Amino acid sequence: MSSSALLVVDDILACPNCSSSLVDLVDVLGCSNGHRFDVAREGYINLLATNRRGSRTPGDSLDMLQARRTFLELGHYQPVANALIAMVGRLADPARPLVDLGCGEGWYTEQLATHRATSSTWGLDVAKQAVAMASRRPGVLGVVASARDLPFQPGSFGAAVSVFAPRWVEPFAAVADRDALFVGVGPGEQHLNELASLIYDDVRPHDTVAFDDESRVSRAATERITFSLDLSPETGLRELFLMTPYYWQTSAERQAQVMQLDALSVTIDIELVAARVY
Description:
This protein is α/β, with parallel strands linked by helices. It has two domains: 1-39, no CATH class; 51-277, Vaccinia Virus protein VP39 (Rossmann fold, 3-Layer(aba) Sandwich). It contains ten helices and eleven strands. Helix 2 (62-73) packs across helix 8.
C-alpha cells in the first residue's frame, strides 16, 4: 500500500482549507474542492494551516529533537512509557484510532502503536522535522498540524495522548468520539529540580498536570511516577539538558557550565492524568 493510501485508510483526514474529506490521488491527497497536498518521502502529510505556522520553522528545533531521541532511546523514561501504555490499554477502546498530540520525534507514539495493533496510531506535531522523524517509526501515521486546529473529521478518535505538550480540550473534542479518552503527561512538582537549580536562582515547583478547560473533562485516573537518575555525559546528561526548555531559557555561560558537568543526579517526577472528554 502506498503512503498516500495508508494515510486515508481510516477516512478521517480533513482538508485544512475547507474541512472536506481527503482522498488518495496516488502520492497526493486531495479534496472535492480541488485542494491538493503532497505526501512526503517519509510518508507524512503536511496539513498545517498557514495562519498556524507562527514562524518559518515552528515547533522544536532539530537539535532538540535529536537530543530527545538520543536520550529516550537510552531507556531512562521507559517506566513512563510503560505507565502510559498501561493507562491507555486499560481505559481506551482498542478498536478506535489514537492520536499523539505534540508527538515530537515519536518515541512514545511508536510504543503506543506497537501495543495497539487493532487500530491506527497517529502522530501530530507542528514541527515538520519532528513528524518526519516520527513517521519513520513503525506503525506511526504522521501529520504536520497544530493541536489547536486538528485536520480530522468529527468522531475520528477514541483517544489522545499529550506528552509534555499542551492539553487543549476543545480541538480534540471536535474530532473525537463522545467520552473519548485524553491522557495528559507532564512534570510533577519536583521534576528535574536539581537541573533547574543550576539554571535559576529561585526554583519553584511545577504546576500539576491539568487540561486547558477542566469543565469539558471528567477525570478517570491519575498516576505519579518518581525515581532518580544518575547521569553522566556517557549516559545522556547533555542530551537531557538539550531536550528541555532549560537549555534554551538560560545564558550561554550557564549552558556551558551544565554541559561541562561530569555527573548529575536528577529527580524524575512525572504525572499522568486520564480524563473523558465530553
